[in-house]
Structures are given as structure tokens and as C-alpha cells.
User: Which sequence fits this backbone?
């Protein structure tokens, strides 16, 4: 079943086109990798699908509703309930501990503090960083920070996780560990994942790969199965 789709999405930054009419569908429970060289429009497509950006033309549909036609407030609420977003550098709040960072989306959603902290600790445990629960970002390694950011993106148990170059700031070993954990968690709770990367080893974790070049799908690689078939 198609959960999320872009239809003929166009997006420019001033006179510079980023997307030139991209159409793509994401099935429920699928891990989709969007790949291509730097500057090809990968992150812009992810931000349009996540409702962070509104396309200049075309449509973005989530569960058959026009996400791009919603107000900013309604799209923001969706990112606190149905969507989780993981950025390349994590973007943790430096003044908060790991557990407080992870609990933050739940607190903003009205959950009780004790309940939110319990859920945060559970997710830190699932992603292998429970030992830094009380540490602040400056006291953690890059890999630990990114796994805490992943826990924060997943703590609301979103239907869709958007991961924008999640291993870009990590060494190879830390990146492999993070991806393995993300795939395992996504499979366990049937989370749909849209993963943006320019690295073939990262795309290999997906079920399917969409290649962009200069803001358009590359016909030679559009919608092909990932090379290693979404390994766990």
C-alpha cells in the first residue's frame, strides 16, 4: 500500500532549480534510499516529503491527503506524531542531557515528564546508548550523539522516519552500527523509512533505491532494488 508519494514535484531556490518534476511512491513499511551526487536534490525531495518544504508545483500526498496544501502548523503537528526526522548532524539541544533530548518530542506533545523519561530511556537502550542517558551532547562521541538523535526521532513511534545523510558525520564503523540499529528497529515496528545518502554502502540497507541527477530521476536507476536487499 502506498503511504507517501510525490507527484511531479518542482522546487527551486531563487533561479536555481532543485527538483524538476519528481514523482516517487513509498510503500508502507518500505525502506527507500534516495541517492545521487551532491546537489542533485536528494535533501530537497526529503524535506518536501516530510512537509518541511512546500513544493513550487506538484503534489505531496500522505495517506491520500494533500500534505503540501496543509498549513505550516498542521504539518508541524504531523512531524510530532506521524513523522520522525533524523538529520546529518543530529541537532541535539546542547544544554539538555541525552534522555532529556529524547524525551523532548513527547513533552511537547503533552506527555507527563515521568512517562516521557521512561520512554526516552527505553529508546536509548534499544539503540545501545543507555550508558550516556545523563550526558550532554558535548560529552558524547559523534556516534553516540547520532544514536541519541535517532532515539529522539523514533521515540514517538512514527509511521515514517526521514533520515537525511544520517551517517555523513560518522566514521565507517559508527555508521554501520547506526544503520544496523535503524533497520532493525524499523523492521520491528514496521516503520517506513526514507533515507537520503550519496554512499552506496548506506543505500545497500534499503529495500529499493531511487537515483536523482540534476533534480530529476535517473531512468537507469529509478526504483531499482537496493544492491544488498535491505540487509539487517
Assistant:
Amino acid at each position: 500500500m502506498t503511504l507517501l508519494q510525490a507527484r511531479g514535484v518542482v522546487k527551486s531556490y531563487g533561479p536555481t532549480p532543485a527538483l524538476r518534476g519528481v514523482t516517487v511512491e513509498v510503500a508502507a513499511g518500505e525502506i527507500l534510499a534516495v541517492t545521487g551526487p551532491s546537489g542533485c536534490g536528494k535533501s530537497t525531495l526529503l524535506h518536501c516529503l516530510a512537509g518541511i518544504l512546500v513544493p513550487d508545483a506538484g503534489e505531496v500526498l500522505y495517506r491520500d491527503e494533500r500534505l503540501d496544501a496543509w498549513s505550516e502548523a498542521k504539518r508541524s503537528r504531523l512531524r510530532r506524531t506521524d513523522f520522525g526526522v533524523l538529520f546529518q548532524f543530529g541537532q541535539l539541544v546542547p544544554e539538555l542531557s541525552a534522555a532529556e533530548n529524547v524525551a523532548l518530542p513527547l513533552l511537547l506533545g503533552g506527555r507527563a515528564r515521568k512517562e516521557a523519561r521512561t520512554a526516552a530511556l527505553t529508546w536509548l537502550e534499544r539503540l545501545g546508548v543507555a550508558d550516556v542517558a545523563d550526558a550532554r551532547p558535548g560529552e558524547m562521541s559523534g556516534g553516540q550523539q547520532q544514536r541519541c538523535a535517532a532515539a529522539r526521532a523514533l521515540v514517538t513511534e512514527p509511521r515514517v522516519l526521514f533520515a537525511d545523510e544520517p551517517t555523513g558525520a560518522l566514521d565507517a564503523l559508527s555508521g554501520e552500527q547506526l544503520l544496523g540499529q535503524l533497520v532493525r528497529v524499523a523492521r520491528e515496528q514496521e516503520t517506513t523509512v526514507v533515507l537520503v545518502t550519496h554512499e552506496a554502502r548506506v543505500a545497500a540497507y534499503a529495500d529499493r533505491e531511487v537515483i536523482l541527477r540534476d533534480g530529476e530521476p535517473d531512468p537507469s536507476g529509478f526504483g531499482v532494488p537496493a544492491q544488498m536487499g535491505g540487509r539487517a
User: Anything to note?
Assistant: Residues 227-232 have pLDDT under 50 and may be disordered. The two ends are 22 Å apart (CA to CA).
